[in-house]
Each structure stands twice: as structure tokens, then as C-alpha cells.
Amino acid sequence: MPEGHTLHRLAGELQELVGERVAASSPQGRFAADAVDGAVVAGVEAYGKHLLVDLVDVPGVHVHLGMRGKLLRFAPVTGAPMPQVRLRLATPDVAWDLIAPSTCELLDAAGRARLLAGLGPDPLRADADPAEARRRLQGFPGSVGAALMDQSVLAGVGNVFRAEILHALRIAPDRPASRLTDAEVDALWSGLAAMMGQGVADGRIITVDVPPGQDRADVPEAVARRVYKRDACADCGTPVVTSTLQGRTVYACPRCQPA
DNA sequence: ACTGTATGACAAG
DNA sequence: TTGTCCTACAGTT
Length: 259
Known about the structure:
This protein is of the alpha+beta class. The chain is built from six helices and ten strands, in the order αββββββββαααααββ. The model has no long low-confidence stretch (mean pLDDT 93).
């Protein structure tokens, strides 16, 4: 489920490679792993949906999972990677296999700067500027639903978080972003920071209330969200309305989020 | 064993 | 707006 929370969680897990010399290989052959094979990992960071593995003395690796990408961890290392693995980064103790990413490329300092320049503030990053987020949201020339999906407005929000945060704040997706009140914009930022942060902690997106004592890991996927991919709104039971915006399905409750 | 669909983003037309 | 990447899984046959 690669929205921003997935990448930030992975970045946290990949800290185990920092300071380690890693063997790099590309069984699938579509990444020039020789260029980074044997390098020492200097740091791993997530910016929005992008993952940056910085290496000592050589360009870093830029990964974007796209819609289908996955990073799988094997510890101990049980054997050779599957043939479709784009990139394996491995130490003697652990292997990380990248499957089906939309991007896996070398990225030097200039490329990194160019990438980050195209991203809006990331609610999951401590160094993000909420005031900049407000400016970019209210300056967006379209609906708030479109704004939230634009990574140059906010980085890391995807289709699930869009649906759930707008529902949580009772904002209809087709409201013009320029007409959001200051209070709504601030609530979007802080609400996303909280919701996405919970996503990092859970390793998936759960927006329904979970009774104390119940393990969040036990919440079935089909009822983990309030409107996303639901037939009926989890809050009021009203049938969820779907529409299509720029090729993506938008979910909203017409009662909780009136136009 | 198939078919349809998906959390993303880009290029082409 | 559509096609593409070309995996994984849920649902259907």
C-alpha cells in the first residue's frame, strides 16, 4: 500500500543498513547494480512517496514504488532472490528485495535536489513547513480533491488518505481548494500528519475506531476505512458516492460531506 | 484457472 | 483521457 506512510515506515526499517557495506544486485537486470555494489549506506530517507538511499562516495538510489512496488525483507538471508527482483541490497544478515517499482535509478546530489524541488511539504517530515502547505493548498487552481493528490502541493498523500481525511473533516472533494478556510487548511495539515503517522505505526491505513484492548493488526482490511472502497459510510450508513477525477476513483459520503 | 482491479505517475495523442 | 509499467490478490468461473 504505497502511500507516504509506507515509504516512511520502510525508511525507518532500512535504518538497519546505515553504516553497512551492501552487496547490490539486479536479478531482473533493469538496474545497473554494479554502480552501487559494495558501497556503504550513508542514510535512508523518505520524502513523500519517494525513498532515497544515500551511499558513501557514489550516487544514491532513488526508489518509487508506484502502485505495485514492494520491498521485502529477508533475515536471515535464505537464498537467492526471485528472478523478478529489480534490486537486492544485502548484508551478511539481511536482504531487501525491491519488486515491481515504477522507479529505481541512480541519483546524484543535483538529481536529488531537482526531485525534492518538485515536492510539496510532507506531513510526515519534521522539517516540513505547514505555512507552505497552506499557501500551496489555497493557491491550487482546482478542487481540494485534486490538490491533495498533487505531490507538488503536499507530498505523500494518495487516494486512500485523500478520501479518509476529507471525510474526517467533512469536506466535499469537489470544493475549490482556494475557498478552503484557514481553519480547514490547518486541520487538513494536522489531520493528515496524525492520520499518516498512525499509518506509519500500523503499517497500513486504519481510520475506523478500534476499541481499547483490540489489536489494531486484527482489524479486517475490508472495514479498516470509513469511506475508501466502502459501500456505505462507516459513520452514518449512507451509500458512499464514487466519482472519477483524473483517472482515480474518489470516495465520499454525501451526507457527511455535503456540497 | 481466469478476470478485474489496485494505494502512482508518466508519456503519448 | 488513455495506455504503460507488468505484481498481487480478491473474486469469479
